[in-house]
Amino acid sequence: MNLNNRLENAINKLYEAFHSGTLHPECSCNCAVGNILDRKDFWKNLSDDHGSLQLNYVGVVNQKFGKRFNGYTPAELLQIENAFLRGCGYGIPLRHNGIKPNNPQSMDTQFEGLCEAITVLCKLDGIKNVLDVNQLMDYTPTKSNAPASAVVL
């Protein structure tokens, strides 16, 4: 599958952060978007709330001027982070006393968040989800091929 540069770079950065232990949903430098933006947190000034899809004044101005950060518009960055946080189990927007997973550092929690973020990254580029097993195997199961029920021995 051919990926464009921004998508490939974003996925590579997220992969590296996940496997090196530098991914943390509650840190603006180490969350999904923070890692995509080379572990910088300037992007948090585009919205008033971490995880929100609503651009603030600074975000709107940057969006209207066509500003892109590592290929992504301010609105796209907010979509990516929103998906990551939701996938990790956070309530949106992220609040100190809000809903959050029991262990944000758990690789299982982070993996779920990354799956959601990568789904959004693919949608933004009009590409089928690279995590879709059916596409990887070039096979989509049909109802007639699925087992009707489990056999108990």
Structural class: mainly alpha
The backbone outline, from C-alpha atoms, is globular
> What is the beta-strand fraction?
under 5%
As a percent range, the share of helical residues equals 40-55%
Give me the count of strands. 0
H/E series:
HHHHHH
Number of helical segments with 4 or more residues? 6
Give a quick account of the main beta sheet: strands, pairing sense, barrel closure.
none
The N- to C-terminal Cα distance equals 42 Å
Number of structural domains: 1
Radius of gyration: 17 Å
Mean pLDDT, all residues? 89
Low-confidence stretches: none
Write a brief caption for the model.
Helices cover 44% and strands 0% of the residues.
Question: What do these coordinates show?
Answer:
This protein has 153 residues and is mainly alpha-helical. It has one domain. The protein is built from six helices and no strands. Helix 1 runs antiparallel to helix 5 and helix 4 runs antiparallel to helix 5. The longest helix has 18 residues.
